[in-house]
Amino acid sequence: PICHYEAVNGRLCFSRPAAHGNSLGTPGGHSAPDLDVMKKIVLPWIKKVAGERPWVWQQDSAPCHVSKKSQDLLAANTYDFVPKTHWPPSSTDFNPMDYFLLGYLERHTNRLAHNTKAALINSIMKQARKLDRALVAKAGFSFRARIQRVIDTEGRWIE
C-alpha cells in the first residue's frame, strides 16, 4: 500500500512505508515527480479514507521530508500538519516498531535456525501474521506513557 492508517485518540494517523519513500533518490528534497505523487495520489487517498474526520500528517527526518517544498506542500494541503520544528527526537522510546515489534519478532523467529534469507523472511512474516491484536494495541497504548516519561526526565534516557 502507498500508506496505512490507524485511529489514535479519535484522529486518523497516516504513514507512508519506507519502500515508498523518495524513490528517485534526489538528495536534499523531493523531486517534482515525488511531489506530484503526493498531490495526485497520496493526499487524495488520505482525504477519501478520512472523510470529514480530523487527521494528522507527520514525516520522519529524511532529507526529502525536511525540504522546504515538501513542508510547504503538506502545510497547505493537510488537515493537520506537524512541521519539522515540532518533530520528536529520533528515539526508540517513541517508536513502537523499536520498543515492541522488532524485539517480539526477533525472540520468536530466533527460536529456530534459518539456513537461507528466504527462510528467515518467511519466519518473520509468519510470526507477524500470528501477532495478537490486543498485544499490538497494548504496545501502541504505551506510547503516551513513554512520551510522558521522556518529558518528566527532561529528555534523559528512560528504562
UniProtKB/TrEMBL annotation:
GO terms for molecular function: nucleic acid binding. InterPro entries: RNaseH_sf (IPR036397). This is LOC100197594.
